[in-house]
Design goal:
0% strand; 485 residues
Length: 485
């Protein structure tokens, strides 16, 4: 075995054992500390990649299920009459596969297969290259604007980015001989994918209706402060930073992703010739385009009637009936099944942090030292803690549910801090924090699975862009928010 690979395998286990062998903090239940040790080992393995990420997630939930009696349940749980720890542990381990958002992410991969098989994705990509492919940065703006146009009407960044944008843009890099899981991925593919991912994070913060947890956050703000947040109030509050970030995104990605292709005068002419070779649009392309349009319209306008995942699965069924896809296409889609496994396991592992009480302990412990600090400084520290604590979550909804009430209650106890303004700043972080990790939001595994962004590169860019996004919030939005009459 390669010694470096052996080290990558041993390090996560060693880290987990070291944490587990250390005494638990006095105010934290021992089982929560042991659970955190396993979770930290999984995160280390996701970074070092000794195995595929989906295999790492499966190992993590298997370990927790095996040792569930000691790491997942409190003594009070175990003492309850009729409590069956092994059965409860396996129920918990498999619960991620019942999450509808995970199946929406799975469906996004099948949409992409439809684009690829029919040739519609290639046709659209060629049209983009023909219009804007002369300069890489212009292509970045085209991708950003596509997400921006859909964001106000699509309260799911998975449906918007992973389900609509990704299946189209994944066809662009091969036009430049930039291939997935290959050194050539950096030619332009990494840039294209990262711009799409970062754009959906910014847009999720810019519009109240661009991310479902935003609505949940406004309900919590109303309960805590009595203030009703309107769509316009949300937009005008974040727009100064949001518009600035969107405008700066393609140049920033050029700087930090460094595509080797900056311009290509031959590409638009080549794309025009390739479009001519494709000939007229086929029946399969028309069928797929109609089905995708139906999906987008239902995602945008029928969210209260039919769940986005139901829409996606129905469209896949119609693809089968319309012979856009075959059952073999679905069964053989390795990337889709890997993404399903990865997301289902990571969501469950992150849920365990809340289930064991670790998240509550962390939030309360972080807030205690702030007593007596100037209110605005305390607010900034709380926002930073809240933002980066998303490393412990694989769901923005779970993050909001677990941490926002606690953080608001801590802020409410600080004299002189305008709670409604602070709450708005906290709410704006939810879209932005989706950039941090491959599991930060359900779009992440789709882009990680594209083969154009390695796991290590994802973590590096996630930190850099997370810091940039947070700086824009604190330096641009916060002063304007606290200056409101």
């Amino acid at each position: 075995m390669d010694p470096r690979r052996g080290l990558r395998i041993a390090t996560p286990f060693a880290l987990a054992i070291l944490i587990a062998a250390s005494p638990a903090p006095a105010s934290l239940a021992p089982h929560a500390w042991l659970y955190f040790a396993i979770f930290l080992g999984v995160v280390a393995a996701l970074i070092l990649e000794p195995l595929p990420p989906s295999a790492t997630g499966l190992i993590g939930i298997a370990l927790v299920a095996i040792f569930g009696r000691w790491v997942l349940f409190s003594p009070a749980d175990l003492a309850a009459p009729g409590f069956n720890a092994p059965a409860r542990a396996v129920d918990w381990a498999l619960s991620g596969f019942a999450n509808p958002t995970i199946w929406l992410s799975f469906a996004a991969f099948l949409f992409a297969t439809g684009y690829q098989k029919t040739g519609l994705g290639r046709r659209i990509a060629l049209m983009l290259v023909r219009a804007m492919g002369g300069r890489t940065i212009a292509l970045g703006y085209a991708i950003m604007l596509s997400d921006l146009l859909l964001a106000p009407f699509t309260p799911s960044n998975t449906a918007r980015s992973a389900g609509t944008i990704y299946p189209i843009i994944r066809n662009i890099p091969p036009l430049y001989n930039s291939l997935p899981f290959d050194p050539s991925a950096r030619r332009i593919g990494s840039y294209v994918m990262w711009v799409a991912l970062a754009a959906t994070s910014i847009n999720s913060a810019l519009f109240l209706t661009a991310l479902a947890p935003n609505v949940l956050a406004t309900a919590m703000i109303r309960d805590a402060t009595g203030v009703e947040i309107t769509w316009l109030r949300w937009f005008t509050g974040f727009a100064p930073a949001g518009i600035l970030l969107l405008a700066a995104l393609p140049p920033l990605a050029m700087l930090l992703c460094r595509p080797s292709i900056r311009a290509g005068r031959q590409a638009p002419r080549w794309a025009r010739a390739e479009l001519a070779k494709l000939g007229p649009v086929t029946r399969a392309e028309y069928t797929l385009a109609a089905l995708v349009l139906i999906a987008v319209l239902l995602w945008v306008f029928a969210g209260g009637i039919v769940h986005p995942t139901t829409v996606a699965l129905t469209v896949i069924v119609l693809m089968l009936i319309g012979r856009v896809l075959t059952w073999e296409d679905i069964v053989g889609n390795r990337d889709a099944w890997q993404a399903l496994m990865l997301l289902a396991t990571l969501v469950v592992l992150a849920d365990g942090l809340s289930r064991t009480g670790f998240v509550r302990w962390l939030a309360e412990g972080a807030a205690a030292p702030l007593e007596g600090w100037p209110p605005l400084l305390s607010a900034a520290v709380l926002i930073v803690i809240y933002f980066f604590s998303h490393y412990l979550f694989a769901s923005i909804t779970a993050h909001v549910t677990a941490m926002m009430p606690i953080t608001l209650s801590v802020a409410a106890a600080m004299p002189g801090l305008p709670l409604d303004r602070f709450a708005m700043l906290l709410a704006y972080t939810h879209g932005l924090m989706g950039i941090l990790t491959p599991y930060a939001t359900t779009s992440g595994p789709v882009y990680l699975g594209s083969g154009y962004i390695s796991s290590a590169e994802y973590w590096r860019l996630g930190v850099l862009f997370g810091l940039i996004f947070l700086a824009a919030l604190l330096l641009v939005v916060a002063p304007l928010e606290f200056a409101r009459a």
